[in-house]
Design a protein that fits this description.
By secondary structure, the protein is α+β, with helices and mostly antiparallel strands. 39% of the residues lie in helices and 13% in strands. The chain has a seven-stranded antiparallel sheet. A six-stranded antiparallel sheet has the order 7-8-15-16-20-21. A three-stranded mixed sheet has the order 17-18-19. The radius of gyration is 25 Å and the shape is globular.
Length: 747
Amino acid sequence: MIKKSLIINGLKGGSLIFAAMALIACTSGNSDAWPKMEADELWVELEESKQSDVISNDNLAASTGTPILSRYPPKPITVSLIDIQVTLDEMDRDLPHFKDQIKNSLEKFANAAPEDKALYWRGVELEKSRLNGRIGELRHIEYQIVANPEASGERERARILLSRAEAIIPGQPDVLTLALLQSSESATNGASNDGGFQFDNQMVVSANQYASEAGLEILQKGGSAVDAAIAVEMVLSLVEPQSSGIGGGGFMLHFDPNSSEGNQLAFYDGRETAPMAAGPDLFKELTDQQDYTRLEAVFGGRSVGTPGVLAMLKMAHEKHGILPWVELFEPAIRLAEDGFIVSPRLEEYITIDTLLMKIPDARDYFYDENGEPLKAGHLLKNPKQAAVLRRIAVEGIDAFYKGDLAEKIVDAVQNAPFNPGLLSLSDLENYKPKKREVLCGPFRIYKVCSISSPSSGGSTTIAALGMLKEYDLGEMEPHSATAYHLMLEAEKLAYADRNQFSADSDYVYVPIRGMINEDYLAERAKLIDPLKAMGKAEHGNPPTDRVTPIALGEDASLEIPSTTHFVILDKWGHAVSMTATVESMFGSRIMVEGFMLNNEMTDFSLVPEVDGKPVNNRVQGGKRPRSSMSPTITFDAQNRPVLLVGSPGGSNIIDYVTQTIINVFDWDMNIQDAINQPHVLNKNGPTFVEIYTDAEALIEPLRAMGHEVKAVKLMSGLHGIRIKYPTDNQRTLEGGADPRREGYVAQ
């Protein structure tokens, strides 16, 4: 499969037809090489006629030793060496040009009048950013061919080109000159950019190259991390409709280095809300049927919640934005009108989905005139969504939440051909995003911070890490069965509490502070036997000011793994870690004016009580459903951000993020290697190991310790930035994008 970096570069050069044909040709026969999301039986329902991806463990080769995992994937990535060679030739050709451009911009900066130096230094930064983009491509090529035995020459050539490119990058001006530049730019731009210290690098990592480059475009125009986040999510709404969009919701964790320490972190909640007319029996008509399938709850209007991502982004922009709101929509509008290339992953999802074809607007958009799914390489335009985005850009979010567009959304939900829903005009008009509490907990010498209710992600991640405090994983063999056993047991205990208590704390009591209390976690950790699995963990009794214990039933929600995550770091040090979703792939499958509506109501428990005890995460009008999204920022002892990370993946998200943090800090991996590692996880049930990776070698050692183990395909979408500080006024950035999806690092 040809990598997106090669395709998009081809498009930039005008080779549209050739690039599209190349993409189609290179995807044939190998389009299903990436893992599908199948650790959940729901996906077996989805692919009714397809073989389950939960493979019988008895048929897998087992190892009796304590294996160490290799990087994911274990087999060489299929990529044309001819394409690699062409790209390397282009790099070789372009490097002298980059060198001349940077030299010229430095000369202009040196010769500029003092009052103009800030302007000319921005020209230097622009050239550096362009070169950094090519350096990112070289590093991606290194990864593509790392395991290819036939690519030794290409690997050596990429290494040499990378060394040449890095040698071209100029250093920062001396401290005095830099201070003058910052003072000058602060006077020019005013207080909106905080007038703080500026680094000479910035980065965007998202699930799609179009989106990452849109975010970088905004940063290069002088925008903030929040400005870039808005551009990224608008593009993802267009090019990754199976995962997120303006018809869905999201959570943003934002860091502002220029605020006082207690106010540097902000959690913006744009989670969808239940229609006010909805109640605990919303899905009773379905669950009362003897042979119902859970997928039936997803499809149609009944599962649609009030979208929140636009309102949340507007709230964040009012606090942290620099560029005008209208400018942030330009990249997405341009793509929607001019067209974008359908990716292999989008083709795959259209192909395997059995429901899109049943909704007329979705059928007209995602299938050709013969009813065939659109293929990778197809140039797809979306003039309807372009018109919607233009209105939101010019008129503000009222264009979405009020008026004729709101009426169309409500009509599509209430008159859906399947499972008509309850969403009303007043639900849209009265939607309010929220700024909520940030949760932090210690891990080794670091502080891990994430989001609170209505997500369970932050508390469960912090709890799992907190229970590992007494175990020095760094001294153990990385990814050994012994180390994984401890991680899995901590995850079981954390998930047991999460499954019992987590919900929207605006509506029900959630002992969230007690769930991450250090003394409580130390007591829970005593339940871990270093040599033997505990089986299914019982929930604990977190410290609470309640007089009587909380009697609750265990949650029964779906939490389907189709979401997106991106991370952004701007030159002022503002950071965004954001996860967004429409819940299932393509959400409810209802399409309105070119965008998908969510099915977030199935993140509530389908049943309101179990054994006569109420479920915290039951449906209530206006309530936000529980989530597992875990946008995370980790800080060092000097309170500097050192890791931004998050992932899609339904209830697996928590484990993906937890284990990536361990990979980075306990085993000192760079962020890309940390993301690449095969997954081994537990959600207080069977242990899942990622099939077709070296993780399979852990099956027998873990079984011997009492774990029930299944090999499955696990579809994370981890995206992260690791930050290091060689000096106080200098930082280096490592970007990582999950090879299981189509992520891209732009810098």
